[in-house]
Amino acid sequence: MRKPLIAGNWKLHKTIPEALDLIEALKKDLADKTDIEIVVAPVFTALVPVAQAVKSSNIALAAQNCYCENSGAFTGEVSPALLKDAGCSHVIVGHSERRQLFGENDELINRKLKAVLAEDLIPIFCIGETLEEREKDEMMDVLKRQVTVGLNGLSETEMFKVVVAYEPVWAIGTGKVASTDQAQEAHAFVRGLLAGLFSTPVAEQVRILYGGSVKPDNVDGLMAQTDIDGTLVGGASLKAADFIRIARFEKM
């Protein structure tokens, strides 16, 4: 059985005091949740205080991005080694906003994945198609390219540590959400790709999260799907009550 993972990507929100207030609310109301994994991804400036706040709790810490080198003349970048030092156990890699707004390509994302794994951190590897690509019936081709290039050179042992997050770009921050059938179709396709690139045991064990306007009123239907193993939550992760309800999803 794949243990569900509920991750909150706070994006460019929350000062340190605001981040700590949110964490305290999550710690209080999710302390009993041992049947899932819970991860939060604050801004870089809040990582250390949040890391201290979640010690001895059931909440893990992720960074929203990293660079593919651990040191050097890379002004403004943050390395996996530094993120590990700050208290992170997970790193989001290849989020659609990094791809769309900051020009990250599959090859760079592949280098980042390898750098994260080299530091014994868990990458949350994001993939997904744009609305234009979906309307042109290019979704499967896009996902195949992102998965094949993004995971190129990883061993099976490394792959067992990777979490994949399918996030249709057209559903992120738009209020739109893929139907449960659309989401399941994409997740099943990705799992099939993993079986072909690696092995059936890898495909059966790797968790594939859904991201894209996940909210309390749609999480139950999403989590009822065979190949959806959790959620990567954006806006709804900024409100304690919403994220708590998502983490307390009820399978339909």
Please write out the topology.
Elements: E1 5-9, H1 16-30, E2 37-41, H2 47-53, E3 59-63, H3 80-86, E4 90-93, H4 96-102, H5 106-118, E5 122-127, H6 131-135, H7 139-150, H8 156-159, E6 163-166, H9 180-197, H10 200-205, E7 208-211, H11 219-223, E8 230-233, H12 240-247
Parallel strand pairs: 1-2, 1-8, 2-3, 3-4, 4-5, 5-6, 6-7, 7-8
Helix pairs in contact: 1-12, 5-7, 7-9
Beta content: 5-15%
Terminal Cα span: 18 Å
Secondary-structure element series? EHEHEHEHHEHHHEHHEHEH
Low-confidence stretches: none
Mean pLDDT: 96
Order of neighbouring strands in the sheet with most strands: 1-2-3-4-5-6-7-8
What structural category characterises the helix and strand content? alpha/beta
Question: What's the total helix number?
Answer: 12
Please compute the radius of gyration using only Cα atoms. 17 Å
Number of strands: 8
**CATH superfamily descriptor:** Aldolase class I
The 3D shape can be described as globular
Task: Examine the coordinates and then state which fold CATH places here, giving the name of the CATH topology.
Answer: TIM Barrel
CATH architecture: Alpha-Beta Barrel
Number of domains: 1
- Main beta-sheet annotation: 8 strands, parallel, barrel
Tell me, what is the CATH class?
Alpha Beta
Pathway: Carbohydrate degradation; glycolysis; D-glyceraldehyde 3-phosphate from glycerone phosphate: step 1/1; Carbohydrate biosynthesis; gluconeogenesis
Binding site for substrate: 9-11, 173, 213, 234-235
Function: Involved in the gluconeogenesis. Catalyzes stereospecifically the conversion of dihydroxyacetone phosphate (DHAP) to D-glyceraldehyde-3-phosphate (G3P).
EC number: 5.3.1.1
